Structure formats: C-alpha cells, structure tokens
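Why do we care about 3D structure at all? Because function follows from shape, and shape follows, mostly, from sequence. That is the central idea of this module. The next example makes it concrete: a single protein chain, its amino acid sequence, and then its structure expressed as tokens.
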Amino acid sequence: MTDHLPFGKRVRFYRERRGLHQWQLGELLNRSEDWVYRVEAGRIPVNSVKMLADLAEALRVHVEDLQGRPALLGDQKDDRADVPAIRAALMQSRLLAGALYDDREPLRLERLAVEVDEAWSLYQSSQYAELASRLPTLLADARLVTHEHSTGNSRIRALRLFALTCHVTATLLRKLGETNLAWVAADQGDIAAGESHDPAVILALRRCVAHVQLGAGMAAEAMDVTLRAADGLPRGWWEASPESLSLYGTLHLNGAVAAARLRDRSSADDMMAKATRAADRLGADANEMWTAFGPTNVEIHRLALALEFEDLQSAVDIAPGLRPGRTVPVERRARARLDVARAYAEVGRTNDAADHLKRAYQRAPEQMRAHEFARDLARRLHKRSKRRDVRELAVNLGALR
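And the structure:
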C-alpha cells in the first residue's frame, strides 16, 4: 500500500501505525523531534544504511517496507510470476515445488556449469529480470543433479554447482528486497557448500550469508560470520591462488561494510586493510568466482565506507579518481557511479550528482530502479534542479509518478 509513497510519507505512515509521536520516534533514535519532522517532510534524506536499519527497527518494520518495493520485476510481461516461481524452486518438498520437477531429466554436470556461469554473468550485467526468469529452472536442475550424483567427485561437483546456484539466487533476491527468501537460498547453499568440502565454495557461501544478513539489518551477525569465515580452512589458504585471494578480499570488503554500520571504525579499517593486502597480492582487477575483486573494488568500497561514516570530504576526495574500467563488471561500475552521485549531492554539487546518477541508470537501469538510494537521490535532485533530463530520470527510476 505504501510502495508508491515518498520515503518521508512511508516513515510517517509506519510511525502513526505504531502510535508514536514525532518526539517519541526521535527519542528512540537519539534524534530530535525536528529531525523526524524534516525526514517525514522530505527535507532531509536518510541515506545511511545504518540509520535506515535503526529507523526500521524503531518502527518495527522491515527495511524493505521503508524502502518500498523496487520497480523491477512486476509490471511487464510475465515478470510477476518470477519471484513466486523462485520460491517454489527453493522448496525441498516436491509437493510445494508444484509441477517444476515433473518429467524433468537431470542435466550433465558440464551443461549445468555453463548455466551457472551464465546466471552469474546476467547478475553482473545487471540483467535482473532475465536472471529471475531463468532461476526457477536452474534451481530445479541443480537440485536434481545433487540427487543424481551420490558419491565421488561427481557428487562434490554437483554440490558445488548447487551451492553456487543458491548463492546467485540469494544475491538477486536481496537486491529485490526479498530478504526472507534470500535467507532460505543462502542457508541451503551454505549447507551444500559444507558438504562439498571445497574451501572456495565454503568461503563464497559464508560471504553470501553475511551479505544477506547485511540486507536484513543484521550487521553484528554479518560481522561475526566474517570473523569466523575462515574457521576450519587450511592455514594460509587465502594466499594460495587468485581465486582464494579474491574470495578472502571480497569477504573482508563485506565485513568492512558491516563494521561501518556498527559504527566500528577500527574494525572497518582492519577489514579494509586485509582486503587491500589481498588486492595488492592479486595485482589487478579480476573476477575469480564472480567476485569482481581487485584494487578497483577496494576503492569502490572505500567510497562506500566514507558515505557510511558520513565523512563527506573523504567521499568527495575519492570520487574523481574512481573510474572503473571495462574489466570491472557492469554491476560494480553502476554502483560506483551511484555512490559518486551521492557524494556530490551531499555537498551541493547538484549537476555533477545528476550527471553521475544518469550514467549509472544508462549503464544498469534495472539495478538503479531496484535501489532505494538511487530513487531517493533522484527525488531530491528533481527538487533542486530544473533540468528536463533530471525529471525524466526521476520518472524512469520510479521516484515520481
């Protein structure tokens, strides 16, 4: 019901539903009554993930409720059916999965590996609708393969492929705001990864779990998973190959964001230092196991952390040098553009912010429509600017009706 309301009006709706006055909500957040008034009036943004999570907790709603459903999969062709079909495919009961498994023949492992790789390519290209349409059958195929191969190396490969399918599923569902369903996918993938005894897949899925926890506002739990992720893995394993360096580095980038949302600057700096060491050893941007890890991704996260800590001068200093090349996946390049736009908007550089947000949308329209910060920024820029293209951008992002 509140999906098409501006953010401030959604806050007001849920505050009134809980029976709170503005001053009471302010006290719960250690903020003033005037701060709550200005948020609800749309005069100031809430563009810190930590504050967004605190606000959701105070109002006893999910973060997704405050953000509104992303205008991503739901209004064209048969896209409405994609998330329910993914939900059915994640069900381990054949009765709950419906007709998905009827007369289905198991794929060869080699063919399934190609399809898993294609799924990750779609995600990193920000082609979310196409990926969502493929995931139900991919999940069914991956689960069937684990039933077909019960012993030996083929069993390990089957479990590995199922775990990685669950990983890409959880990652997409988190983008769509389907946090509870993402949790199911991450949990099943983590179990399969453990059974495979493959260190790379185990670490990848532990990062996936922490990523979903962050999306659910569980920063402390995500931090704990990051700190314990290497438990049981061979000592020094992370230095063994480009793949292990990339997984280790990406895990700690995720941990740095978790620490920032806990306002733990010391831990965030420590996590970033570990990621930086891994990137330095790797030597260049790479995409081992779809991590998009390397020096550029470290810098993208450095900007994100500056925004999390509201260190605007550092964010503006980092922004001009952040120029991801074509070796960096589209999803990462678009996110970098969004954060640069956010940094410029915070210091009043409206035209620069609009130009970068426009480029982010042109590069990855589905990704930007799914991101509350992009929609909120478009609304604010529209209020500040008379540029026609800024209004068109806000309309395309679903920020204006």
